[in-house]
Amino acid sequence: MTNSAPESGAFPRSERFIATGIALAALAMRAVAFFHYRFDSDEPQHLHVAWGWATGLLQYRDIFDNHAPLFHMAAAPLLRLLGERPDILLYMRAPMVVLWVLLNFAAFTIALRLYDVRIATWSILVLNVFPPFFLKSLEFRTDNLWNACWMVGVLMLVDASPDPEKRVSRYVHLFLGGVMFGCALSVSLKTSLLLFSLVAASVLTWAARLRHHEKAPIRPFDIALIVAGVPILPVVILTFFISRGAWPRVVYCVFRFNELIALTRPALAIWVPRLLSVPALIILVRVAWRYRRNTTTTRFFLAATTAIFGVLLYCFWILISPRDFLPFMPFLALFFVAALAKRRHFGPIVAIIALVSLISIGYYTAWLQNKTREFITMEHQVLTLTEPGEFLMDYKGETIYRRRPYYYILELITRKAIAQGLLPDTVPEDLVRTQCHVAQADGEQWPDRARSFMHEHYINVGRLRVSGQVVHDGRFTIGVPGDYVLVTPHGEASGSLDGTPYAGARHLDVGTHVVGAPAGEHIACMWAPAYARGFSPFHLRDLDF
After folding, report:
1. Which of 9, 270, 446, 531 is most solvent-facing, going by the fewest CB within 10 Å?
2. Can you state the angle between helices 191-211 and 167-185, rounded to 10 degrees?
3. Residue 147: exposed, middle, or buried by beta-carbon count in 10 A (0-12, 13-18, 19+)?
């Protein structure tokens, strides 16, 4: 890819002073937010899948997941090294710092190739104080690896020298660019939109150069090198799953399951954006065509790629969140700063933008208060209340270290599919089948049957629930067979159980049971191992956060 020399621009001392202040403030806030910013529900979900890899389970076959697998496979060795610990997510956020540094290096280098050090510096600062980027780049999530692979791939293309004397270096860069795009594809299927955007932008750039009477040769070997690099890692990963007999589960989880998004939404909500994509792309092409003479080839190409991806993502990717826009946030920041830099009061303007952004970050992080302790407390209870091999029912893997009795994760897609009868709510049956005696706390994310069953047959002991029931009128009902004890606020109960003297833990089957005890005494029946491990429904654990 050809590229003109970067424009030289002065970097006034006053601007350097402001930029340094913004950088130091952003770094200080990032350092505090790393330890204090609340854990998003996606973080333990991804870590649960990585835990599956670390313990010999196979993604898709043994643990449900609807993402491409590379991120979880890469995280598993570190998780295995660290072991099971309540604050594991703080440690697993550390690799995200490495990816953040790598992404910023790639973004800064690209900006430096296209413009000058002043614009490159400000574009990185604007990017890093933009609240969605700041917050999502902190979290343990697939999107950070996806974005880093994408940006390094683009850097490889931009750095591919057109100098005939550096032909070998050019070929290496182009091939490695393709490999990095393949890595991105192995992390997220949204990479398919990015690759399509690259192709469409390449065609548009080629046509613009021809129209401008510039030489625009098509280099088939260059294209072949990029294309050859893309499938290498995806093919290796798919071959691995095929060799394990898990290919049908890969197809279902990664492709067919995600089709439920369309089936659970009104047709108009799907097809109106898709139809709007046609005039949107036409307008985009016309605007790009108008400004094709006012910029360099590489700038035109990357701007077109960014714009096309934005249109395609909005119009064709049904379930959209801020993290989906991460790959073109660096380019939006770059082109925004480049346009703003032409204004007379650029320094004060960008300083105000940065200040507003930092205040917004403070707001969204609850002014950097520590919001991680509640989750760490729950993980501590998971490790105290359960042992390896025991099942634990949660929404989508929040408890990380234990198998879930229900295959599907209870995120938005699944809940809507269950509500519309497209997926079964077999949670009660699965709880009984696996003799799962521990579950996450009550909440609206549970499907109706699951919520009703656990509300009736589980009791709170803190951040988690265990199987059991409070005794009313001398009776209680067991929903999950197992070993149970009768407890009071002061210890184990006395009296009789089902007509025989109560003398400690006893195996109880599903059904109603009768307790003989002094009138007015508060008694609960609970899963015996939970009581032996120090839990009681009358003394809830660690609820002071």
Report:
1. 9
2. 140
3. buried
Which residues, listed in sequence order, are joined to residue 515 by a DSSP beta bridge?
A: 497
Beta sheet of 500-501, edge-to-edge order? 475-478, 511-516, 496-497, 500-501
More confident residue, 496 or 281: 496
At residue 234, what is the residue type? Answer: P
Mean local confidence (pLDDT), 472-494: 95
Query: Which two tokens mark 488?
Result: 């009071």
337 close to 122: Cβ distance less than 8 angstroms:
yes
Q: How far apart are CA 179 and CA 198, in angstroms?
A: 15
- Scanning the structure block, which residue is given the tokens 């993604």? 59
| Measured distance CA(245)–CA(263) in Å, rounded | 28
- Between CA 387 and CA 28 the distance in angstroms is 39
- Retrieve residue 350's tokens: 């960008």
Question: Which residue, among 443, 448, 493, has the nearest Cα to 468 in the 3D structure?
Answer: 493
Collapse the DSSP code of 379 into the 3-class scheme (helix H, G, I; strand E, B; otherwise coil) and give the result: helix
DSSP string, 7-46: PP----HHHHHHHHHHHHHHHHHHHHHHHHSPPPTHHHHH
Q: Are 434 and 391 in contact (CB under 8 A)?
A: yes
User: By mean pLDDT, which of 106-115, 218-227, 292-301, 340-349 is the weakest?
Assistant: 292-301
How would DSSP label each residue in 320-363?
A: --GGGGGGGHHHHHHHHHHHHTTSTTHHHHHHHHHHHHHHHHHH
* 3-state secondary structure labels for all residues of 272-337: HHHHHHHHHHHHHHHHHHHCHHHCCHHHHHHHHHHHHHHHHHHHHCCCCCHHHHHHHHHHHHHHHH
End-to-end CA distance of the chain: 56
Neighbours of 246 (CB within 10 A): 18
Residue 303 has which token pair? 């701007």
| Type of residue found at 469 | Q
Distance of CA 283 to the CA centre of its chain: 33
Cβ-contact 244, 302 below 8 angstroms: no
Q: Is the pLDDT of residue 1 over 70?
A: no
Backbone angles phi, psi at 465, to 5 degrees: -125, 150
CA–CA distance, 307 with 329 (Å, rounded to integer): 11
